[in-house]
Specification:
heterodimer; A: 204 residues; mainly alpha; Arc Repressor Mutant, subunit A; 2 domains; B: alpha/beta; six-stranded mixed β-sheet; 36% helix; globular
Amino acid sequence: MSVRNAILGLLCQRNRYGYEVLQAFQAVAGGRETWELKPAQVYTTLARLKENGLVVEEISDGETDPGKRRYAITPAGKAELQRWFETPVPVEHQRDEFFLKLMLALATGQADPRRLIYLQRASLFQELHRLTTLRMELDPYTSLAHILLLDQAIMHIEADLRWLEMIEARLDEVRKQPIPEPELRPRGRPGKHEKNIIPMKEEP
Amino acid sequence: MSNPIVSTQSLTKVYGQGAAAVRALDGVNLTIQPGEFVAVMGPSGCGKSTLLHLIGGLDRPTSGTVWLDGQDLTQLNDDQVTAIRRKKMGFIFQFFNLIPVLNALENAALPMILDGMRPAEARKRAQEWLERVGLGHRLTHRPSELSGGEQQRVAIARALASDPALILADEPTGNLDSRASEEIAGLLRQISSTWERTILMVTHDARIAAYADRIVFLKDGKIVDETVLEHRNGEQAEMVADKMKEIGD
């Protein structure tokens, strides 16, 4: 969704060729290393936007690129873009692959949770240094926006490192607790004799 | 002379194999005495992060040894290294990552409480360090009520309260403006001079490094120079910057 909406924004800025859209997206997203787009993804997104009437194609009649297609945003596209601006970005911090790994290590006994933490920490530190080095190479007088993007990533990594510390400190407690299992509920309507299994509290 | 807190012998880390092998660290011998404040500097890719990882028990060397407070980390298994890291090392990061709903005192005490210390004892220690870093009047303030410099002080108190043998500061001033950076560097200076804690700091910033007792310059995985500073209050920043230039940024 974000790529689609960002493309609308880039076309709102000015009309662009497909390849220009790709380049412009990567530039605003923080560089190719940050968010690499495949040309195919750009062209299929543009095709879908066109189908939905959010962009139109104009055939260039200029001498430089005769026949090359430039994309332009439509009023409907502008309205869609406005909707995006007005909607807060949902956060998904609770979906965490490391957490899943940890739970399954505990459930299966196939991996040592402390080892998982150790490996994850080492990898986070590597990434922390890579990002810090990247940030230092940027000039705050011209690239402040990109620096802030890297700051966000660095803050998250440092928070993840603190979180690993907490898990490590409380791992023994976690181990003593049951691994979450789905509630086993028989399908369909409960039989007569199954009713009122849970004794109701008597009213005073 | 007392036993060093950190001592590495021929510390080497090679990433990859064969022709693609990179020697990130190549035979580093580094000794840090108790109460010393050592800065590690060098151009990007010089191996300073790798050195910090190895000393911090976050990675294992290809060869050589790391002694931390009398124990050879390379002879210990992962669990033992983890136990030592938790007990003997305090990390100071770039951002403070304080927990918003906890006040300064609770933030500084939390890691010790999680580690099983009695809450009353943890709070006592946390308070002592918060007072030392000049936040005695801010104990019940939440992070949102503190300035950036004050938040970093809470983070420093949190790192020190468990009384680690070694403080590892990894670009601690990365995101602060230059005034706040120097304030933090001055505080690290004080932690070493007044309270005799041992600090190993990695930084790219000559102004901050100029607060250390000693600066170790790394290049291509080797120590290429070492400077003991006379004034440890930032005054020699220019000299440090010149040295960095000499080494090649």
